[in-house]
Amino acid sequence: MSHHHAPEALTLYRRLGLSRRRLFAATTGLAAAATLAQPAEAAEAAEAASRRALIPRGKRGIILYTVRDAVGRDPLSTTLPSGFRRVLEELGRIGYRQVEFAGYRQHANAEGGANLETVEGARLLRAWLDDNGLRAQGNHGFIPGSWPLTTADLDRFKQTLEIANILGLAHVGTGADPTGSAYKADWDVAADKWNELGSIARRAGVRLYTHNHDAAYAFLLDSGPLDEQGRPTRSSGIRKLEYFFGISDPRRVYFEMDIFWAHVARFKHHTYTAPDGSVRTDVFDPLATVRAREHRFPLFHAKDGTANPATANGYDMVPFGTGDIDYRRFFSRLRERERHNPMYEQDNAPGTDPAQSLRYAELSYRNMAALRG
C-alpha cells in the first residue's frame, strides 16, 4: 500500500497529533461506519451481487423442444416469432447463449423450408446461431436402433455427425434411454452399441450422450428366480443407469441428466425386491449420482417442478425457478460449473396462449440468471 497521503490528510493528522498508522485506522473506521449506515436493502443488494452466479452467463441454455410450437408454426399466420430464424433471434434477445436442438424441422413456410437436416440447412442454422450470439451444444436426434449396425443406419449416423460439425455441436444424442428394458442382458447389448457409436462420434470430434428419464433410475432385474422366459425377477439393488455407467466407456459415452425426471425417480423408485425376496429401501440421490462422475455429465435439463404427491410422478412441470426443486443446492455443490451446460426445458410450456412458451422462456432465463450461491 502507498504511504503517500493527500496534503489535506497530512494537515489533518498533524493538527490532531495522529501518526500515519493511527490516521489510517481512523479513516478506515469512518469508511466502515459509512458502509454500515447504508440502507439495509442496499447492503443486501451488494451482498447478493457478490455471490457467484450458479449458472454462468455463457452457460444459460434452452432446448428448443420447450418452444417447439413457435418453431413449428406458420409465420404467415401470426406476428409472433415463428420458425428457427425468428425464434433464435428472440432467444438471443432474451439473453440465452446456448441452445439444444430437438431435431431440425420447422413449418414449411419458415425461411429455409420444412427440413433443415441437410448440409445446406445446417449452414443456414449455423449462420442464424452466429448472428444471435448462440452456440448449439447438442441435438436430440438419430441414434440407430439396430445392433449390429446396418449400413443404412451407419450412413445416417455419419450424416448426423457431419451436420453436427457444421453447426459446431460439441455433443450429439437422443431424448431416450439407451434401452427401455429392465433386464441386465439388454443393458449389456445397449452398452456394446453405445460404445461403438461413441467411438464413431469421437473420431468426428463430437461426444455422444443419452438423455434419461425416471425409468432409467429404476432397479435392474439381475438376480433371483427366473420367470417362464428365463429372465431374472429380482434385483441386486443396482439401478439400471448405474449399471450402464460401469459398462459404458467413459471416454465415449456421456449423459444428460434431466434433473426433473431424476427427482421423479427419487419419488417413484425407492424400493426393490432383493434376491432373498425381502423388500429393501434405497432412496435415489440425483446430486450424488452426478458428483460421483461429473465429467460424464456435460449437459443437464434444468426442468423445474412443483411437488404434487397425488400424481404418479410426484411433480408438476413449471417454469424454471418457480418450483420446489432445489436448484440452488444442486448447482452450488457441483465442483466444476464451467464443465456443465444446463438447458432449460419445460415439456408443457406450449399452451392455448401462442405466446406462452416464449414468455416462459424469458421468465426462466431471468430465474437462471438470478440463481446465486
TrEMBL record:
* Key word Isomerase present: yes
What is any Pfam family matched here?
Answer: AP_endonuc_2
| Keywords linked to the UniProt accession | Isomerase
User: Entry's Gene3D superfamilies?
Assistant: Divalent-metal-dependent TIM barrel enzymes (3.20.20.150)
The answer to whether keyword Isomerase applies is: yes
InterPro entries, A to Z: IolE/XylAMocC-like, TAT_signal, Xyl_isomerase-like_sf, Xyl_isomerase-like_TIM-brl
A GO MF annotation of the entry reads: isomerase activity
Q: Which residues cross the membrane?
A: none
Q: Where is the Xylose isomerase-like TIM barrel domain?
A: 91-339
This protein is called Sugar phosphate isomerase/epimerase
- Per its UniProt record, what PANTHER family does this chain match? HYDROXYPYRUVATE ISOMERASE, INOSOSE DEHYDRATASE
